[in-house]
Amino acid sequence: MSATATPRAEQDRRFMQLALHVAKRILGQTAPNPAVGAVIADETTGEVIARGWTQVSGRPHAEAHALAMADGRGHGKTMYVTLEPCSYHGRTYSRVGKKLPCAEAILAAGLRRVVVATEDPNPEIAGNGIAVLRGAGVAVDIGVCRDEARWLAAGHILRMTAHRPFVQLKIAVSGDGLIAPGEGAPVWVTGPDVRAYAHILRAHADAVMVGRRTVEDDDPDLTCRLPGLANRSPRRVILDSSFRLPPTLKMFQTVHRVPVILFGTEGHKPPKYPTGVETRTVAPAADGRLDLQAVLKSLADDGVTRVLVEAGPTIAAAFVEADLADEVVIGRGTEILGPSGRKPFVDHGLELLDDKSRWHCITDRKLSGDRLTVYRRTNRFGSTPSP
Ligand SMILES: NC(=O)c1ccc[n+]([C@@H]2O[C@H](COP(=O)([O-])OP(=O)(O)OC[C@H]3O[C@@H](n4cnc5c(N)ncnc54)[C@H](OP(=O)(O)O)[C@@H]3O)[C@@H](O)[C@H]2O)c1
After folding, report:
1. Band of the pLDDT at 223, cuts 50, 70, 90?
2. What domain range is 341 assigned to?
3. In angstroms, what is the span from residue 102 Cα to ligand 1's centroid?
4. What is the pLDDT of residue 58?
């Protein structure tokens, strides 16, 4: 416990951490809705009465799920929820079968206090959920674990406020911080555990994206191939301004199971791709390549909230230069590539991420013999970086 935290503040933080934890497990399964967690607890005894999370495809919401799990035992108790409860009448579910917004379902269940990690910027909610609860006499506290909750809901928040999904770059580098160019298939510079972690990142995304040259060099499949998670493969997105890629790509073989979308610039005609492969065009940027913001908006319009970019150096540099990368995940092996390696951001190596005004490191740990480091864009949500 921190020296300044009161026992109640510390207990609030612990229950909210639990709510965040349950929400993290369903990242990548709730789009277009955010992955939210809710815990109903007895503050006096410290007992957890129920845990709830957003269900697959986004409904029922976490609060409705937690109330159903509590089965009437939430009366007079406290709910901890990672995002403001909704207040509009939609497809929301409640235990008694009525389609109540979550704020009203909480009132109907007789909860005494609600602790909210962060407000929902969705214009249909935007403070109304909190107002409904307070208006009915429920005590509401806001801001417990706010930073963490914002990063958890980053895809939803950015989709609502910037018309784009959350963008996570994933880059595997050698011991000397360089990229190994593919040779008809990906070249592994990290061990099996970092590679398995990369598949978890795919499972937590709504779309996985690569540039044209990665497809040419590696011919990747881009599916999630972890045991038991094969059905968690997100749609695959290729950036290929002039539709130069051939119709024979490996990933087209599984398009009936996992969608593929190719983005090109307006005026370019795609070749005849296999049935099921989707092509879209957007306006070119000043350099004639794809306007990345337009690509992201097109995906956000489909409900995509989280994009994992498996970034070759050109695409990595383009996202960072456009300030469209929110998180960078670096898996670092031990092999030394020397002159055969490429800098991960074309003209810049990993030192680019040392600029504290733009990036802060949230994780730096060993994973088997390799290293896993995660950086977040500083002040993306006006928040203070972790020390
Ligand atoms: N170690 C890793 O984690 C990792 C991950 C991925 C890839 N790789 C390796 O990286 C290599 C490929 O990297 P790369 O730098 O050569 O190419 P890349 O980043 O895979 O793709 C770059 C291409 O994307 C297209 N593109 C479309 N819109 C763009 C935009 N707005 N900005 C920039 N590019 C845009 C461009 O081709 P058009 O102009 O034709 O559209 C560009 O040449 C491969 O050898 C692969 O094995 C390594």
Report:
1. very high
2. 165-377
3. 44
4. 84
Q: With respect to residue 159, please indicate whether it lies within any of the assigned structural domains.
A: no
Q: Please confirm, yes or no, whether 63 is among the known catalytic residues.
A: yes
Question: Of the residues 101, 117, 152, which one is the last residue of a structural domain?
Answer: 152
**192/305 same-domain check:** yes
Name the pairing type of β-strands 260-265 and 235-239: parallel
Query: Given the CA of residue 331, which atom of ligand 1 is nearest to it?
Result: 3
Q: Which of 167, 179, 187 to mutate to test the pocket of ligand 1 (most atoms within 8 A of CB)?
A: 179
β strands within 232-287, DSSP E: 235-239, 260-265, 278-282
Residues 6+ positions from 382 with CB-CB distance below 8 Å: none
Q: What is the DSSP letter of 369?
A: T
pTM: 0.94
Residue 16 belongs to domain with CATH number: 3.40.140.10
Is 290 a pocket residue for ligand 1 (Cβ < 6 Å)? yes
- Classify each residue of 347-363 as buried b or exposed e, where b means 16 or more C-beta atoms within 10 Å of its C-beta: eebbebbeeeeebbbee
Per-residue pLDDT of 201-220, as tens digits, reads 999 999 999 999 999 999 99
Question: How many domains, in total, are found in the chain?
Answer: 2
